[in-house]
């Protein structure tokens, strides 16, 4: 999952990027509204954390412009605790949720997980595909009750496919949603990670659709003799 952080406070921006990265997200960031607006218009994010009070272009204008342009990714706005009017304006501009400053990072992560799940059509934190269970809260992956150890990139790939199971996901889409803008994007890398995840899971849930990409679904039941 790929997240954009738009926050003008350098220390808070850095804390958000670090915490999101540690939680398994690919993260891009901007320190002003103009750069944030540009990234949101040109990159396919799974969610955005957007401060309201930004230099060069305020957060509400950024959000309104995204929505007018048809950018429908979930947006979590950050507001000052005593400025309730920002919350109302934020929702009217197209925000999906808000957190008031100061906040606990755990709350940001929990709200972000919920936004990403809902955007993909899931209501529960535990995503299930046949014998594979992915707990979005803890980042644990289980196959038939046994925990599987994945690297951060392997986890991102499996998490994206689990959020979008049953739908063919192209290699290009995976590259765009698994890596931040500074990553050396090579579609062959996706094939390597898919192979590693398949091997570690040990169950046939990731299918290759020739010429199109990959689709995740429950394994076919064994044929009766």
From TrEMBL:
Keyword Membrane in annotation: no
UniProt keywords, alphabetically: DNA-binding, Phosphoprotein
CDD domains: REC_OmpR_EcPhoP-like, trans_reg_C
Domain OmpR/PhoB-type: 124-218
SUPFAM superfamilies per UniProt: C-terminal effector domain of the bipartite response regulators, CheY-like
SMART domains in the cross-refs: REC, Trans_reg_C
Every Response regulatory domain range: 2-116
Gene3D superfamilies in the record: 3.40.50.2300, 6.10.250.690, Winged helix-like DNA-binding domain superfamily/Winged helix DNA-binding domain
Chain coiled-coil ranges: none
Residues with the 4-aspartylphosphate modification: 51
DNA-binding region positions on the chain: 124-218
UniProt keyword annotation of Phosphoprotein present: yes
Domain of life (superkingdom): Bacteria
Pfam families: Response_reg, Trans_reg_C
PANTHER family: REGULATOR OF RPOS, RESPONSE REGULATOR PROTEIN CARR
Protein's name in the database: Response regulator transcription factor
Organism whose genome encodes this protein: Flaviflagellibacter deserti
């Amino acid at each position: 999952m790929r997240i954009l952080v738009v926050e003008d406070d350098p220390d808070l921006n850095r804390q958000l990027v670090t915490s999101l990265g540690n939680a398994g997200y690919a993260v891009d960031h901007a320190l002003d509204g103009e750069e944030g607006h540009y990234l949101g218009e040109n990159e396919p994010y799974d969610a955005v954390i957007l401060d309201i009070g930004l230099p060069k272009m305020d957060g509400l204008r950024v959000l309104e412009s995204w929505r007018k342009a048809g950018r429908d990714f979930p947006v979590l706005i950050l507001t000052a605790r005593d400025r309730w009017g920002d919350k109302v304006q934020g929702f009217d501009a197209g925000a999906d949720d808000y957190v008031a400053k100061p906040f606990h990072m755990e709350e940001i992560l929990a709200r972000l997980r919920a936004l990403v799940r809902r955007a993909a059509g899931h209501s529960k934190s535990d995503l299930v595909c046949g014998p594979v269970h992915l707990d979005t809260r803890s980042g644990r992956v289980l196959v038939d009750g046994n925990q599987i150890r994945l690297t951060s990139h392997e986890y991102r790939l499996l998490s994206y496919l689990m959020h979008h199971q049953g739908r063919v996901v192209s290699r290009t889409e995976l590259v765009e949603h698994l890596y931040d803008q500074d990553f050396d994007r090579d579609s062959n890398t996706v094939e390597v990670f898919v192979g590693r995840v398949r091997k570690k899971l040990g169950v046939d849930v990731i299918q290759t659709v020739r010429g199109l990409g990959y689709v995740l679904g429950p394994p076919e039941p064994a044929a009766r003799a």
